[in-house]
Structures are given as structure tokens and as C-alpha cells.
Known about the structure:
This protein is α+β, with helices and mostly antiparallel strands. It has helices at 19-36, 48-59, 112-126, 141-149, and strands spanning 2-3, 10-13, 65-71, 75-84, 95-103, 132-134. Helix content is 31%, strand content 20%. Strands 1-2-3-4-5-6 form a six-stranded mixed β-sheet, with helices on both faces. Helix 3 links the parallel strand 5 (95-103) and strand 6. The relative contact order is 0.16.
Amino acid sequence: xxxxxxxxxxxxxxxxxxxxxxxxxxxxxxxxxxxxxxxxxxxxxxxxxxxxxxxxxxxxxxxxxxxxxxxxxxxxxxxxxxxxxxxxxxxxxxxxxxxxxxxxxxxxxxxxxxxxxxxxxxxxxxxxxxxxxxxxxxxxxxxxxxxxxxxxxxxxxxxxxxxxxxxxxxxxx
Length: 173
């Protein structure tokens, strides 16, 4: 699909042989988010890799889903998006939702994430998506810079408040 200049990585559609690697990277995504905010994001468990692998495997043949991998002799990253219709609860018209994008930490800083993202955007455009919407962890400034550089703009802010009273509250002196 796409080739990375200066690297042997190629962006291609994910296949059944990639499922275990997708699970590994998905578990890494879960763990990184948990480290950003352990009260908001789920922790990775012994079952996360298999669960993530199973879920992404179920999406491989879905007509409205797209899973791309960055392959450098092994899968070093992936992106997962799906085309969706109107969502009145989110006040959003038809769009592609970019659910996941991750590059193995050992391969970051080499343009793999940008290549994955640009290839995904081109793929979604060719499938008729009028826009792409994504969410990113507040603390994930590297991802936010990448998204901004390719033209994403901020449109919503998620806010979380724990109701168990175990954490500090900003509305109390």
C-alpha cells in the first residue's frame, strides 16, 4: 500500500496472520492509557492481549472497518477505523472513527505513525468518509501534535469525575 522512505516498513491491510501482533500492540495501547490516568483507563491484564486480538480479528471482514499494519518484517504498528452513520448522541453526522493507532515504542520517531495515519486517511477518503473523528488521551501530547500536523482540530473535550469520592475534588477548598 504505502512505503516508508528510508525504512523497510510497508503499510498494508491487516490479515489473519497479524492477529497476535495486533493483540500485543492493543494490549500496549491499553497499558499506555492506563499509565496516563489509572482511574479513567482500564489496566492491561493477562487477558488483554487475547481479548484485543479476538476483537480485532472479528473486525477484519467487517465491510465498514479498516485495519492497517506497519510491517517491517514484523508488525510494528497498526491503525483501526470504522465508517459510521449519524450519531445523534454525539451530535455527529456520518464519519469514520479512528479507534486505534499505535506504533511499538522501539520504532517511534521514524515516521511510522504518520505514514499509518496518512494511509488510513487516504483509505477512508476512498471509501467515502466525509470526515474522520478521533479521541486521544489528554496526556498524549505526541499523538496530539501528529494529529494537528495532518489537519485534525479539537472539537470535543472529554471530562471525567470519579463518584467514589476516593480522589481529590477541585470544587472543595
